[in-house]
Amino acid sequence: MNPIFDLAVSIIYYHVGIPKRDCRAYCDIMKRTLHKIPFYPVLFFIKTVLQSGGIAPKKIHVFFLYFFRYLLLEPFRLAELYIYQKKIAAHQIKQSPIFILGHWRSGTSHLQRIMRLDPCLSTSTIFRSVFSDSYYLTESWLKRALNLICSTLNIHHFIQRTTMDLDLPAELDLALCAMCSKNSYSWGHILPKSFSRRVDKQILLRDEQVADAWIEDYDYMIRKLSYWSKGKRVLVKSPGDTARITHLLKKYPEAKFIFIHRDPISVYHSSTYLWKTIQRHLSIHEVRKEEVHDLILSTYQLLLSNYLEQRSEIPESQLVEVHHTRLQQDPFGEMEKIYSTLELGTPPRNELAHFLQIAKPYNHTNYSTPDELREKLTSRWRFAFEQWPE
């Protein structure tokens, strides 16, 4: 069959949603060739925005930031794809990844930042996640230029409330979004009207074919990090993984898991701040405060209840649970616990001591919790209060 015809049919089948069993050959052709089409990410991005609720009038400038990001980096994306794709696909992961689990604002970023002090580990950074499709060719110069701009203009990280540094660790799922994978739940932060649907589809993975497509994309990004770091063990943080243990174990049966938890009421307030900040700086949609409240309530319940259901699948020597407060109060003790339980060898004590010496103390925000809200959270998330009491 004519390859151009194959490609055209595969694109049509793929986008109109014909079941995979009816067009597997076409979908396979599409998957191998679609990302090699020049400016495909630009077209994919526009299509995704239009299908997910369009653009809020006040957010047109945010839309164009994403648009020009994809447009300007397209030559580097294509070059990296042609130079490295086969090498990455052929790369063998010798050490199973370590996955950090936990709801957003439970301390996952802080834990990732401490764990990445280990010189034996590799993890995704802000730069590698935002420029996941081209960082092999751009990290040496573009990261330096952007960090210089951030330093000169005194730009701060608007979520972690620290000085912006593109070497700060970041979610791996964001990397899927940046490479225009439709299997990323991070599209739900850019397009929050679609967040609930994406939680159901890309986090809970109820559809087997969606789950297979997601793990294939995820594995590619993990291989990419491993190949770039010359075979180091990869440390992965994406809160959505908290509900995807079954699928991760199927792909990486010897993977290690660190689950971090925090007082649920603190998680609620911090998540509210997170959503407010995301909407201000990253989202193309605008959602009401009441909708954000409902999103937080339902997502926390789904994520943590699925974790409890799947936790028993993890062998005892491959899982450790950490409390956010204890990690802050006794980082050395908690790191010893993590490394001992997971048999990771010697923790990076010297690196941790230096990090704690130069790190600025985190300023905790004191939130007030009305009685009605406290009662609602306690009732809705009772299972979490009982499972992980303070």
Explain what you see:
The chain folds into 2 domains: 1-37; 47-362 and 371-387, P-loop containing nucleotide triphosphate hydrolases (Rossmann fold), CATH 3.40.50.300. The model is unreliable at 1-6 (pLDDT under 50). The chain has 390 residues and is mainly alpha-helical. 59% of the residues lie in helices and 6% in strands. It is built from 21 helices and 5 strands.
Which key phrases capture this entry?
single chain; 390 residues; mainly alpha; Rossmann fold; 2 domains; five-stranded parallel sheet; 21 helices; 5 strands; globular; disordered N terminus
Number of helices in the DSSP assignment: 21
- Could you list the spans in which at least 5 consecutive residues all have pLDDT below 50? 1-6
| Percent in helix | 55-70%
Globular, elongated, flat, extended or rod-shaped: what is the shape?
A: globular
Strand content: 5-15%
CATH homologous superfamily title of the largest domain: P-loop containing nucleotide triphosphate hydrolases
CATH topology heading of the largest domain: Rossmann fold
What kind of oligomer do you see? single chain
The structural class is mainly alpha
The major β-sheet equals:
5 strands, parallel
Kindly report how far apart the N and C termini lie. Answer: 64 Å
Mean pLDDT comes to 90
The side-by-side strand order for the widest beta sheet comes to 2-3-1-4-5
Report Rg. Answer: 21 Å
Briefly summarize what is shown.
The protein is mainly alpha-helical.
SSE map:
Elements: H1 3-16, H2 20-33, H3 40-51, H4 60-72, H5 74-90, E1 98-101, H6 108-115, E2 121-123, H7 126-130, H8 135-138, H9 142-152, H10 172-178, H11 187-190, H12 195-203, H13 208-228, E3 233-237, H14 245-251, E4 256-261, H15 264-281, H16 289-310, E5 319-323, H17 324-329, H18 331-341, H19 349-358, H20 371-380, H21 382-387
Parallel strand pairs: 1-3, 1-4, 2-3, 4-5
Helix pairs in contact: 1-2, 3-4, 10-13, 15-16
